[in-house]
Every structure is written in structure tokens, then in C-alpha cells.
Design goal:
This protein has 19 helices and no strands. By secondary structure, it is an all-alpha fold. It is globular, with a radius of gyration of 22 Å.
Length: 428
Amino acid sequence: MSLTNRILVAMVAGILLGSLFNIMLGSAALGDSYRMVVSDWLVNGVFDVIGRIFIASLKLLVVPLVLVSLICGSSALGDSARMGPIALKTIAFYLATTGLAITVALLAAVAIGPGSGVELAGEADFVVAPAPPLADVLVGIVPSNPIQAMAEGNMLQIIVFALLFGYAISHAGESGRRIASFFSDTEAVIMKMVLILMTLAPYGVFALLAKLFAEMGIGAIMDLAAYFFTVLAVLIFHGLVNYSLLLKVLAGVSPRMMLNKMRPVWAFAFSTASSGATLPVTMRTVEHRLGVHNSVAGFTVPLGATINMDGTAIMQGVATVFIAQVYGVELSFAAYLTVILTATLASVGTAGVPGVGLITLALVLEQAGLPVEGVALIIGVDRLLDMVRTMVNVTGDATAAVIVGRSENQLDEAVFNDPRADLESNRE
């Protein structure tokens, strides 16, 4: 069985087993001794440990992969005039698709009306962490201590340092060429580590999903069914339709081929709910299965994992309309434009802040004149939706890499169109 199919089987098995455990733990017929075995030993013991080890092993590779890939990419481009255009194209693409995502989300939410008829279930407590001022965000992008930035996992600072270091390598003559060769070899070793980790992915995916659904259960979805399925439908539409159209129009390549090769990445994204944790797998897929040269992939994908939040923007659009309808607030056309602008800019401005989705949603609600407390209404299903949002985000990262790579003649179409490219990593 291929790695992709093994991961899919693990996903289904984890969801089913977790849902079964959730039903068992909620049943009065289950004895205390059995409840302790299921809850303490299996769910919060075995599954929790395996899941956390899996996430930690993914995060282990993120900082070295981003650093090395960006150094290799920027050093390859540093002696040309293409670094600036690539950066501008990438950032423009991410901002444009984020604006498109929230616009589609607002239109769908207004048409469906997920908050109509929903009654407030008492007072909900929600305290949002304050977003940093824009000036602090801009200053914080430049690292004062790159070692500290790596230790803290501050991706924006790591990106800036790696780009500067790679650019310096390209202008350092023979010394720079020796260092560039070292980092090129290091990148190959890190990619081998990614390949080793991918073989263990089904076990980590199974443990993560079994624990999550054992704690939440399928029933959590039904409490906010209209909101949940509206967000889900827009996420699927944006991930499959909008990105496919952009690939076809801007790059002239087969969207079906790319989406088929993204299946392992989706499995990682769904189970981890983290673009950063999925980054090693995304990078390998974009370079070795989609044929994007490292000079482009090494910049677009790590940057996308940091600032590309199309999935979060979709949640914010639907959630804004949902909360407005629940509280009986009529939003004006100007308010909708404010929501689009705020969410698009906030996706970059709060990129390094934990819990970014809820923080940016609070910002959007404040700008639209809606109560921030409304965020508490959707927290119950946000974890499940976050998993799908991450799948959309990583698809956007790969789409940007392919489109920018094609525009820069850095896309190997033979690799992209080969369904069996790099299959030693996927056992197909």
C-alpha cells in the first residue's frame, strides 16, 4: 500500500475509533475501571504521547529546513536581478488570494445565512490576546539575534536572516561557493530526514485524530451545523476551484495533477492543523513531485507557511456574518469592505502570533463594530475547521510556488506532469 493510502486509512481509523471512544465515555453503562482504561491509559496516555512525539518530530525539522532552503534559494538568485521580482510576485499572490478568499466567504455567508435563527447560549467568556501594534510588527521582522530567532521559532526573522545570508554567499566569491555547497548538501540530508519521518506518519496521524475525536466527538459539529458546513463548503471551493483556475490561467498546468500529488501533504495538514509542522512535507512535494526549482520553492513555501492564511480568512468572513446575524446587527457595504481589508492585512501583520486565527477575527469584529465576545460562539468547532483550513493554506503555498516558478522559468514541467515523479518517497 502506498504511503498516501496508508495515511488515509490511518485518518479514517483514527476518526472512527475516537468517535467510538467518545460515545463509550459518555455512556453510563461503562464501568469506572473500563472508563479509566479508555480515558487515562489509551486516550490521554498512548494516543497523547504518540501524537505529541509526532508533532515534535515534525517541528524538529521546520527551523533547519526553512533556514537551509532559503539560504540555498537566495544564494542561487543573489547574483541575479530576479530575487526582488520573485518576492514581489509571491507576496502579491498571497495578499490577492487572501482577499479573494474572504470575499467569497462573505458572499457565501450572506447567501446562506448560517446565523439566522441561532439563539445565544448564555454569556460566553472569551479573552483575546492583544494584537501587536503595526510598528512593533515591522521592527520585529528584523532579527537582533538570529540564534534566538531560531530557538524561538520566529519564522519571519529566520526568513529575513536566511535571505540576507544567502545573498551574501552569492557575493563572497570562492568562499561563498564553498559555503553554498555545504548548505546544498545539508538540504539533501534534511530532505532525507523528512523522508524517514513520512514513513512513520500513519501512526502519528492515527493517534492525533483518535485523541481529538475521543475528546470532542462528531456531535460537536451538529451544534453549529449551518456555520460549520458553510465554512467547510467555502474552504473546499477555494481549495479546489479557485486554486485550480489560478493554476490553469496563470501557469497553464494541470490542476488535477497537482491536487493528486498534494494528497500526502493534505493528510499531514489535516492531522497536525499546522502549516509550519507540515512545512517539511510541503517543501519536499513542491520540489521533488511538482518540479519547482529550489530557488523559488525555498522562498515561496516557507513564506507562505508564515503569512498565507486563506483558510483563516474564509473562517473570518463566515464568522463575521454569522456573529452579526446572531446578534441581530446589519452590516453595511462599507463594513464588508472593512472586513476584507482588515482580514487581508492582518494575515501578514499578526503572522507570528499564537492563536492567530482568533486574534485576527477579534480585530475584524472590532473594525466591523461587532462584539468580540461572539468569538466564543464558534470556538467549539474551530479545532475541526482549523484542520481543513490548514489543508487549504498548504495548497495555496504549493499553488504560489508553481505559478511563480512557471513565471520565472523555474518549473520543470516534465517532473510536474509525471505522475510517478519522486515516488520512492511515496511507495506508489
